[in-house]
Amino acid sequence: MSTFLLGLVRLLTGAQARWYGCPPKAEQRIYFANHQSHADLVLIWAALPQELRSITRPIAARDYWTASNFKRWITTEVFNAVYVEREKKGDEDPLQPLIDALESGDSLILFPEGTRGHAEDPQAFKSGIYNLARRFPHVVLVPAWIHNVQRVMPKGEVIPVPVLCSVTFGEPVALGADEARADFLQRARSAVMALREV
Amino acid sequence: MGSFLRSLSPEQQVSLMFVLLFGLLLIASGAGVLLSLRERQHADDHTGDRAQRLHDYQALLRNSWLMTLVFWVGWAAGESVAIVLFGLVSFFILREFISLSPTRRGDHRSLVLAFFIVLPLQYALVWNQHFNLFTVFIPVYVFLAIPVVSALGNDPQRFLERNAKLQWGIMVCVYGMSHVPALLLLNFPRFAGKTAFLVLFLVLVVQTCMLVQHLVARRLRDPVAPAISASFHWRSWLAGLAAGGLLGVALAGLTPFKPLQALAMALVACVAGSFGHLVMKAIKRDRGVTHWGSAGRSVTGASGLLDRVDALCFAAPVFFHSVRWTFNL
Q1: In this structure, are B115 and B130 located in the same domain?
Q2: Confidence of residue B11 (pLDDT cuts 50, 70, 90)
Q3: FRET partner for B62 with CA separation of 20 to 30 A, picked from A99, A174, B36, B197?
Q4: CB contact under 8 A, A147 and B296
Q5: Is A164–B99 a contact, with Cβ atoms under 8 angstroms apart?
């Protein structure tokens, strides 16, 4: 199934990975990218090389990706995704599943906007990535820009259209020892946006 | 020699042609390897110009290997496989074209229609040899269907421009390309089993014309339309036509044409192909790139397939119609 899906994604989009600021390397990383379509998750998964794909887990919104049996199956069996709640329930920390995954040594794919954007520029980043960076200082934070994917499958459409897409990985962003939350989030967001023009 | 060739069955004649082609390619590749060895020894005293020429030569060679292999597979595996192969080429070049032409959300359904309905249907028409419907399907029916679907998308912004782009993409990438395998299925009296030669004739003549034009243009200055193409000159264009025409006459024996007919057919294909290439250059400039591939590599990862086949996409329909019209097929 994963080979089939990979072939399909390559046929439709090319799923080209462009490593600009860092090489593909098997260290523990958090890839964070702009989010415009549900297909983002599939594309970034397909763009990673085979060796990294097996140790990298995307973050999937629980309400969307567990809505049907097929979605649930594909996110658990193929993508090995980590589910997060978008709505905060009770006093449970919504970041807990991510923390568990990082503690067990996995890399993560994160969309810090939290939801899909419609504008050209990504929305302001949520603070989850800051909290994770504070807690796991050894994990490398790699920004990524996903190009064109909103044209493959805009919100509300079912059939994907073949358009060439690429994922550009940039230079890792490190959290300063006493950097404020807002500054860091702003810096991370501009690191992602800077990759648009590379 | 001539009587020996005539004594062979059509099948054997086509095989012989492929043996010759692959032999030529092997010799050319061998020469390329030797040249690259020499280049390394005199690396310091030569300018980048030589390296550039060698690079161009190798790119051209790779291209020719690929095309010959595709044609060989298409011929060896039968017409249906050839049609599927050309259908895939159409798919990839349309994907390249669309990736560099901005579309909006309202175009999504039209794109689905173009890729998953129009493209397969056009090739299915080729396969079933419905040539009358095949030649009007895209210019007449799809011409209306695409804007209707777009209009239902409820987005008036740049409506004409978006639809024109899509219609153009389909005309060039699907309609044009699909005429190449259609040549394989033409029913010539006394020419059964040898229609592969028609495709070969078209491809060789057009590619030779483009190549000669390119080589001659390198020595010329003051292009006709510098804002569109730095390499289009009337003199190089005429040189390309002459080369294509001469090759056409030389290849007349392979085709159902008499020498003069072959000359006319070759010239028609070359004029269409070279002008088509110029038009595609203008479109690329409009998009702000010089090659579909080079921009593709930096933006989307496209391979630049469209750069290589655009002349063929324009030459094939014109050639196909001239052949059908001349021979009343």
Answers
A1: yes
A2: confident
A3: B197
A4: no
A5: yes
Question: Which of B105, B111, B300 minimises the CB distance to A166?
Answer: B300
Q: Answer whether A164 sits within 8 Å of B116, measured CB to CB.
A: no
A131 interface with B at CB cutoff 8 Å: no
Same domain for B18 and B46? yes
**In a shared domain, residues B217 and B314:** yes
The pLDDT tens digits of the residues spanning A151-196 come to 888 777 888 888 888 888 999 998 888 888 899 999 999 999 888 8
Same domain, B220 and B328: yes
How do residues B131-144 score in pLDDT, each as one tens digit?
889 999 999 999 99
A196 touches chain B (CB under 8 A): no
> Concatenated DSSP letters for B32-82?
HHHHHHHHHHTTTTS-HHHHHHHHHHHHHHHHHHHHHHHHHHHHHT-HHHH
**B261: containing domain:** 193-329
Residue A82, chain B, CB below 8 Å: the answer is no
How far is it, in rounded angstroms, from Cα B292 to Cα B52? 20
Strand partners, A144: A33, A169
Token couple for B52: 């550039």
CA torsion, points B31, B33, B36, B38, in degrees to nearest 10? -70
pTM: 0.82
Q: Test B300 with A159 for CB contact under 8 angstroms.
A: no
